## 1
Amino acid sequence: MEAVLTVSRALVAVAARSIAAVGGDVTLPQYRALVLIAARGPQRLIDLADALGVNRSTATRMCDRLVGKGLVRRSRLPNDRRTVRISLTVDGKALVDGVTKHRRTDLARILSHMAAEQQEAVVAALTAFAIAADEKPVLGEESVLDL
Amino acid sequence: MEAVLTVSRALVAVAARSIAAVGGDVTLPQYRALVLIAARGPQRLIDLADALGVNRSTATRMCDRLVGKGLVRRSRLPNDRRTVRISLTVDGKALVDGVTKHRRTDLARILSHMAAEQQEAVVAALTAFAIAADEKPVLGEESVLDL
DNA sequence: CATCTGAATTGCAGTATGCAACATTTTGTC
DNA sequence: GACAAAATGTTGCATACTGCAATTCAGATG
């Protein structure tokens, strides 16, 4: 049981290091928002808030800051003028790509320290655990969890 | 690779649910602090700050709030009156115990959905991964990661 | 004793967060 | 079509988390 927690720490450490390495002057919550937009494409503010699990007002103000940093863009839709469309700028996309690349390199390095059979076993075991936890494995290349 | 991230989400979800279930009106950072104090015993403020990876001032003010909630206690040591000794109150201990119990039940429930061999495989795989990540498996019953 | 070092606190600034109130726009009902 | 209801954002208010810099107090060192 403790191994589960230890792995969690290792994963979080990897993620934190990747964000710090690429820097970009974004906080973790901000980065989570950027990843969600990158993964799911331009979307409404409320969808982003729901995906992040935060209040609408929190999302509004986070977008304010991200717009200020030139990482996302606000635009209105002609068919429904209530909604705001949030999308990544080129800089925002570049930041997410950079962090993702760094993180994957880190994880690959960790896995490379294990024998090939072990690597397969880890993936199999984690997948089984994830299914048991009633969480479907992520399908696409970009994960919502791309912390 | 994605399985690793999916598991991370599942683990965080379990932890968050446990905290929410027991409630106690503490934030996640506050709970992390309580767990550290519970796991390592009464300690100086600076040690707590280091363990949490935050600035001393952050720890100071977090302790202010926890004292206000009656979950921790501040006391000075007679031999070195610079330092502050932070310890859990009975209520603080009860809160940590409650969340831990809830979390363990949740994880056990998840594992119970898997075949026995699978359970062993998961533990083995996670341990191997943790070692590869250069993180020693936690020894004691209480983990620093007891998020 | 003077100075330096260590521990904690406080001031300041920026970010994150939720709730409640509000404005605007769309939808639904009569 | 008019009015009520719901959806979407934004803003005000309050609290919490965070780091950096300056300050206070206590030990350690010369």
## 2
Amino acid sequence: MAKEKHPTRERILDAAEELFANKGYEGVSVRQIMRQADADVSLAYYHFKSKQDLFDQVMLRRVEYLNSIRLKALEAVEERHPDDAPSVEEIIDAFTHPLLDLLAKEHDEWKYYFQLIAQINNSPEWGGELMTRYFDPLVRRFIDALRKALPDCDEQDLFWSYHFLSGALTLTFAETKRIDNLSGGVCRSSDMASINERMPAFLAAGFKALCSR
Amino acid sequence: MAKEKHPTRERILDAAEELFANKGYEGVSVRQIMRQADADVSLAYYHFKSKQDLFDQVMLRRVEYLNSIRLKALEAVEERHPDDAPSVEEIIDAFTHPLLDLLAKEHDEWKYYFQLIAQINNSPEWGGELMTRYFDPLVRRFIDALRKALPDCDEQDLFWSYHFLSGALTLTFAETKRIDNLSGGVCRSSDMASINERMPAFLAAGFKALCSR
DNA sequence: ATAAAAATTCAACGCTCGTTGAATGGTAGT
DNA sequence: ACTACCATTCAACGAGCGTTGAATTTTTAT
């Protein structure tokens, strides 16, 4: 496993990320995290202020990079269309593709982070606030782009469409293997290439259907 | 509040349902549940075998009724089409409408149960297994109906489409208020009528787009 | 080599956790 | 009135919780 490559602080973040993703914030103790990180319990409180702070740092570690690559993907699409508006599908693809590509890598570096986001997005307690805090500016940027691509779209239709998109995307992150059972092995939760092929088309059709009623 | 109407066992289930939905299974203690149910801690272990059993009974209490009304809705749609196949939108509507109607009631009887389902569906740990156990027969029935409505659809496209549907639907259950913030008040998470108007059309367009590529 | 700073270890705090067993009250049938 | 039986209360168990302070080792800078 060669765990000793990383400095302690990162090993703690790695362990916390994986365990929070699997069991939820309350389902994991600091002691369990530090056991997995192979370090003394009190080191958690040397490197972080509290369990909650550790959780926050797990979230923050990756969120900026995530937002930056998604913004770049959107800007690239827009630069490809200096005159007209990009298609709905292109915009949605810029929103989802960067994430699914990270998940498609053979190592698990991003897997647990996205599982965590899936849980947060669907948590009545923290879902609204955390997702807003971390992703709102980027999401507004994408919705602006979609509004331009669908100039006659009612605002409610636009936001509800994004809501459906968000649900479909984050359930994909959870990788619960439900679809593996349901499909009898025809589909696999971890098969991001298949999702990449299908999700933007599926969602773009939904946007267009709602916004041109 | 007039809590004393219900027998103890139901009061415990009510309290557990609400607290599990808000904080997750591990985020709530049996003591908290019994405090909210206004009963002694040990009564939890008189009426239920363990905390896990209490959770299971919370799930089981409503799942049969849920499956029965959704099956009836599908059968009603099919009876309306004795010769041809029902439309994709009608089938999806039968899948979602009964649930959203329960959520639309002014009291909160069903709210917490659906929030719980939203969390479970997106939980890497239990999501696949629990959802499969409780909803698989019904879901297979609906997918069969959709397959008939989309006879040329590839199996992978069909299952992935259902996956996107499931994500969109369960995020709606979570009622995280994220869309309230994002839309600046234009949309409200609790506005099931608005979702009822839009979700079947959105998802049906997605199914059709994927299945006729 | 030495002093300062960073990282790690050890022991412990008060508290809550899930769970249990034994004692008590209430209610129905005889 | 007596007896079962169902429902509830009370007290407690060992274990694990988040967190802290002080002592110790390791690294860095002079």
